[in-house]
Amino acid sequence: MERTRNKFADSLRFGGYVLVKPFKGFYELKYEKRGTLAAGLVFMLLYYISAVIRALYTGYTFNPSKGSPVNLGMIFLQSVMPFALLCISTWCLTLMLDGEGRMDQIFMGLCYAVPPLIAGNLLYTVLSNMLTAEEGMYMQVIYSAALLWTGFLVFVSIMEINQYSFGRTILSCFLAIIGIAIILLIFLLCFGLIQQILIFIQSVYKELSYR
Questions:
Q1: pTM for this structure?
Q2: What residues contact residue 108 under an 8 Å CB cut-off, 6+ apart?
């Protein structure tokens, strides 16, 4: 039990190592198993929590809808779901592009890429309650830097975990975006079909109940 606890703590601290040495960090995450899926899920959970905190506590100047009910499900769709879709799409491309990553490794790599966004959301929230509207550009610069840093980490994680070349990684990211669009389209079509089936069943039931 103690050994498991120590490994989990080490894998959490390893997240800081990945931030400063991403190429070596993601390589060691896969081949030396320094990261864990449990720690990755903690990072993703913290990212979701930070997104909720930003929605709830951003200053009124930068969030006029403050005080209105917060849709936690929508925040989940906007924060966590893009990473889940990117994981599925990237994994589906591994066979076509000769990638070496398994789905759990790809997802773990994406989870270790979100700490900059966690810090970005929290800093944005704090600064929004301290700065004026004219100074809001500083918040945008900070959050944009966090977004770019996470994007870079995602890129490196896909490259190292799948052992792609630089060019193949760019191709993989481009195809992954197309894959996400296709997944969403299929989901919307299935949702629409299920909705139509339910409406048909409901109408048949009402018709039979009147007889």
A1: 0.86
A2: 29, 35, 36, 37, 40
